[in-house]
From TrEMBL:
InterPro entries assigned to the protein according to its UniProt record, in alphabetical order: Sig_transdc_resp-reg_C-effctor, Tscrpt_reg_LuxR_C, WalR-like, WH-like_DNA-bd_sf
Residue span(s) of domain HTH luxR-type: 60-125
PROSITE patterns xrefs: HTH_LUXR_2
Keyword Transmembrane: no
Protein name, per record: Response regulator transcription factor
Keywords noted in UniProt: DNA-binding, Transcription, Transcription regulation
Any Gene Ontology biological process: regulation of DNA-templated transcription
GO MF annotation, one: DNA binding
Amino acid sequence: MLPEQAAAQVPELLRAGALGFIGDGCDDQEFYDALGVVARGAVYVASGSRAALIGGGAPAEPAQQVLTRREQEVLRWIADGYTHSQAARRMGLSGATVDTYVKRIRAKLEVRNKAELTRKAIELGVVRREPLLAAA
């Protein structure tokens, strides 16, 4: 939990391995949402801290200009903590197809691992605050 004024530290803390950030003024629901996301192995960053990830440089390109609609969908599932095979089942695709999408996404976004992929998904606004599926 970070004070709202400490949001600028988020990129440094992510590089150090932190998995979640919420402001000290968050409500109970946001706290439990964040806990659930981190428990699945994904990264949770409160909306007030997301601007710190993008920084003051050039604005990030919208995901729609970088990734296809299907690549965005795969990225959402992966960034929400699902495995490639879980994402494939939910999308009605083969695991090999999702693997191919992930390779393309990594190449386009110039990321090497799942943590970088998740961070980039947050920067691009692809990750939703709510999980893709309610209790399924």
